[in-house]
Amino acid sequence: MRLIFLGPPGAGKGTQAQRIAERFQIPHISTGEILRQAVADETPLGRQAKAYMDRGDLVPDELILGMVRERLDRADARPGWILDGFPRNLPQAEFLDDLLRDIQQVCDRAVNFEVSDDEIVQRMLGRGRKDDNEDTIRHRLEVYRAATAPVIDFYRQYDRIVSIDGSLSMDDVTQVLVESLPRN
Ligand code: ADP
Questions:
Q1: Of 27, 35, 158, 159, which sees the most CB atoms within 10 A?
Q2: What total number of domains does the chain contain?
């Protein structure tokens, strides 16, 4: 199972990715988590990424693409994976397309979690992560609309996209999501 989770920040992608990863025994690859860990460990990547993350801007592709390639190259990602938070703009989507062709893998589904802006702001203020203040949240939403929403159209042309109402309860989202996945 190879899945790409799309949708605004705070849509619940991370929670659902964890559940589906557990169920199918595949790694949950969250670029946001990898970056937060790099910041905490004060690695060169983390040091460069930090200011962008604090502002709610995208970290430059130069820092992201190699990181994703390395992660997908690891042995545990061979049987499948869930990408959460990547791709986040069209160049990243095109990079992933080429990379998957290179390693002869195919993404089974791109899942688009739909949640309204009001609901997102409410949820994220309740979450209390360091980059979750109202200004940054608003900015992340703007970045999402401008850079990430076009990625949905990119996957639409492949007919592999499913949209899910992310405003449902977590358990209902999981159920709808599982039902939308290919059976194997
Ligand atoms: P959220 O779902 O709240 O947006 P993430 O954990 O996915 O949170 O990402 C947190 C931050 O990490 C983003 O605001 C951005 O700065 C950075 N980031 C994560 N993934 C990417 C990516 N694919 N490209 C660029 N920046 C990224």
A1: 35
A2: 1
| Mean pLDDT along residues 151-180 | 93
Burial 69-84 (b: 16+ CB within 10 A, else e): eebbeeeebeebbbbb
- Taking the C-alpha atoms of residue 111 and residue 43, their distance in angstroms, rounded to an integer, is 32
What CATH number should be reported for the domain holding residue 13?
Answer: 3.40.50.300
What is d(CA 68, CA 29) in angstroms, rounded to the nearest whole number? 9
Residues with Cβ within 6 A of ligand 1?
9-10, 31-32, 35, 52-53, 56-59, 64, 85-86, 88, 92, 140
Average pLDDT over residues 99-117: 94
Half-sphere exposure (Cβ direction) of 75: Cα atoms closer than 13 Å: 0
pTM score of the predicted model? 0.92
Q: Is residue 33 part of a domain?
A: yes
The full length of the chain comes to 184
Q: Please indicate, yes or no, if residue 184 is contained in any of the structural domains.
A: no
Q: Which residues contact 63 (CB under 8 A, 6 or more apart)?
A: 45, 48, 49
CA dist., res. 82 & res. 31, Å (int) = 11
Q: Domain of 148?
A: 2-175
Q: Is residue 160 part of a domain?
A: yes
